[in-house]
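Listing 4. Sequential folding, example run.
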Amino acid sequence: EVQLVESGGGLVQTGGSLRLSCAASGFTFNDYAIAWFRQAPGKEREGVSCVGIDGITYYANSFKGRFTMSSDNSKNAVYLRLNSLKPEDTAVYYCAAVPGLANGCGSDYDYNYWGQGTQVTVSS
């Protein structure tokens, strides 16, 4: 059974940082692209970053330079470092996985498996 479990969210002040984790199980880690998405209240879900089966990390332009995605294949985990947080970064952050995706992150419709999400709240 494929499982994705996010953790690391919380309440942080403007300008602060968080590191989100996504623990993956039930599939061959290197055969799947894994992505981070977020959804703010009243807004559509948006892609943040992903690492494809090619091992390349991609970012949506809005997050380049502030957010950093990394992975630890030995732990079947990916991480998302959030820096210089702003109130508009308040959202539920999800990790998602899909087999065989490379050359970009695709859209959320491409992803088969989703975690339950972790809430990030940035106070002003």
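-- end of first protein; second protein begins --
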Amino acid sequence: QVQLVESGGGLVQAGGSLRLSCAASGRTFRTYAMGWFRQAPGKEREIVAAISWSGGSTYYTDSVKGRFTISRDNAKNTVYLQMNTLKPEDTAVYYCAACAYYNDYHNPALYDYWGQGTQVTVSS
């Protein structure tokens, strides 16, 4: 069993930065691949970034490449999403999630555990 709690969301002006954190409970955290998803009003949930259990492999959706960085600290049971040069279109609720297999990162239905979400609002 893994419980996930996100933090770090908020209101920021366009061009600003935020760092989201996802704290996990459970000794098996380090065996899971982790993903960050987001969902804007009226839109489907989409994958933003993913990272393998070791941190050796990462994925970014095209719209955030070069601006967002996903990382993890298995000793602290935490995964991060550093978001730079934020744009109004990044406004959404951001969720972290745990997946047993990194190769399944693109499919939200294959994630086993989800956090409650944190709101990110970027003003223009």
